[in-house]
Amino acid sequence: MRCLLFSSSILLLSCTSDYRTLTAIPVDSNCVSKMAPRPLPTSWYHASVEVVGNHISGLLLIKNMPDSAIRVAFTNEAGVTFFDFGFSRDRTFTVHSIIKKLNKKPVVQTLRKDFELILALPFVKASYQSWRAGEEIFFGVNQKKQTAYFIISKDCSSLHRLEWGSARKRKVTVLLAGSGYPSPEKLEIIHHTFDMTISLTRFQKE
Q1: What is the pTM of this model?
Q2: CB proximity list for 6: less than 8 A, separation 6 or greater
Q3: Distances (CA, A) of 197 to 73, 190, 192
Q4: How many CB atoms lie within 10 A of CB 202?
Q5: What is residue 73's DSSP assignment?
Q6: Per-residue tens of pLDDT for the chain, all 206 residues
Q7: CA 44: distance to chain centroid?
Q8: 16-203 CATH
Q9: Which of 24, 86, 87, 205 has the greatest number of C-beta atoms within 10 Å?
Q10: DSSP per-residue string spanning 108-167
């Protein structure tokens, strides 16, 4: 009996949702217009990546192209390009170049989702749902089997963070510092299903 109770407790814990406290509320379109993240302008960032005990650093360029595409290129201090990704106007994703060590489908797909989120692509011309959780409001956009969230204060005055989540699990959180969107001074991308953090700090390149 003791083993059965223990097994039942483990089952209940494993089924607990990270989003269990969300309560559906009507969407405030005025608040969405005011607070929804907007696509980033052309910007340079100092980038630091910690992944499973390994460290990579360099410069990240987010560049808006004349055809409305967006390029994301990450290079080290010596000018070697780790990757160069493209997002077209219709959100088609292209790998223009990538080093062999990173050229694995799960890695590329993970980076693609990370940059889609910080570029605010899921929130462009989106159909929203909204929820209340404590002192915060969650606005969500369904993206196949995941939802992209931006989370704000309940009075619609400040943007707290962005997230990717599945039906039950928080996958990725983007923390914001400084001025926020559309020109955030600092972004920290934290993965919750494996050990990976990307820190980006904006700077002016001469």
Answers
A1: 0.88
A2: none
A3: 18, 5, 9
A4: 18
A5: E
A6: 443 333 343 333 445 788 999 999 999 999 999 999 999 999 999 999 998 888 999 999 999 999 999 999 999 988 899 999 999 988 899 999 999 988 999 999 999 999 999 999 999 989 999 999 999 999 999 988 899 999 999 999 999 999 999 988 999 999 998 777 888 999 999 999 999 999 999 998 76
A7: 18
A8: 2.50.20
A9: 87
A10: HHHHHHHHHHHTTGGGTT---EEEEETTEEEEEEEETTEEEEEEEETTS--EEEEEEE-S
Reported as type and span, the H/E element at residue 10 is helix 2-15
CA-closest candidate to residue 119, choices 67, 57, 170, 182: 182
Q: Which of 156, 183, 186 is nearest to 37 (CA)?
A: 183
Q: Tokens for 41?
A: 């302008």
Query: Rounded CA gap, 53 and 138, in Å?
Result: 32
Q: Provide the CB-side half-sphere exposure for 124 (13 A, CA).
A: 13
